[in-house]
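[Automated response] Your request has been received and processed.

Submitted sequence:
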Amino acid sequence: MELKDKILKNHDRQIKLSYTLAKVGYDTAIGKLLRLRAYYGDALIMLKAWKDFLYTRKENIGDKYFAVDHAIMHTSHTQVQELMQTEPQIRGNDLGIIRILAPSYLLNNPLSLGTNGNEHTGVRAIFSQVLPDPSAQIDILGRLVEQSLSKAANQGKLHIGEDLPSMMLDILHQLILQISLTEAEIKASRTYIQGLPLASIPNFISKYLLAFKTAPNIRHRQHLINKYKQSPQWAFILETGTKHGLNEHQIANSVFDMIHIAGTAGTSALLGSVIGVLCLDNTLKNHVLSEINTVWNSQETLNESAIEQSHLMNQVILETARLYPPVRFVSQLTTNSGEVEIGGTKCPFQKGTRLLGSIFTANRDANRYQNPDSFDVTRDFSDILSWNGYGHERACPGRNLSVGLIKVFCLYLFKNYKWQSFTEVKWDFAKVTAVTPNDLVLQGFAKQT
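Generated structure:
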């Protein structure tokens, strides 16, 4: 069966499932089983062809359709923006399209991204206090970035998919917790991040039948949780979380998620895409280099004004985030039941149904952006959906740090380092991983003399 036929036939089953769930119950044993079957039916396709999945349903059904665990997928800029700005939001223990069905993988703590009520308020309070303002920490950021790039120069290459996540883990642990990870700990953290899809498998299978894969990751998470409590920053973090009714376990695990999932996976993916964009467009790269040379004399210490005056670099980052968003889906739950029109058919939905927003398709919506698949740094980014937009409870608290860190990285990379060649720059739109040119290698990587 052709891919298109599989995608559309699975959706026909989802339409029928909406009426079945209205009869048997959404959260009954049979209802959960039927939704789980639908989830894996779509997930098996999305693992290998997520972009084709999104656009096949969008083009043949409309801007709104069922997907994965009978969630209602929204794909237009207007729809996704409205989802993000809905307040208050009720979240499930989900990571985009991924349902966390194996709580053991997270030490039985919900994702910080999936908390609600006072717990959600407490977690965000911790994030807002421990995530530094990059402008205020510019000297520390510069030193940490320079250390990372020097290591890459020693090995003579910079590998986007392998080196950037390791660098980000190292930098964020030092910056946020003032602790250093060993090479073995960094490697184990990268393995943990790569193993996150294992948390979408039912707990018994993930914890026991796949223990040869999951057990080392779970042990590593517990090891780092214990290490966090030795951080010079721990008393401050604990005090903030305790004021909001969180216990040690919740606080430490939320910090782990923040660093590993949002911080490392998201920021390293976007940084890799920025480097890829500048490798492909030599004219744009030269303009960026000209700006860097204007705002920063490398004989002087990097300062706040250099970051603030990097206007072109800021536009490059925003346009890269639009085209290649490191976070591609946003998720919340309905608070009531109702009826939704899908492809001209009115279908019932139940309370607790997931509402998914496809940031990737929304960012390429022709109704919002002219020539949406073209790279254009002159665009209006006032309502960009990457980082979940602005000014509401869903907005990413780490946006300023992420953008600032990427700016500092690029300032040092393009000012102080050189490379003789680079491999093919290619974004993978098949595998359901963060969109970044993971196979890109800067070869002959060395410090400028």
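Summary generated for your ticket: The domain at 80-91+110-329+364-447 is CATH 1.10.630.10 (Cytochrome p450). The chain has one domain: 80-91+110-329+364-447.
If you did not submit this request, please reply to this message.
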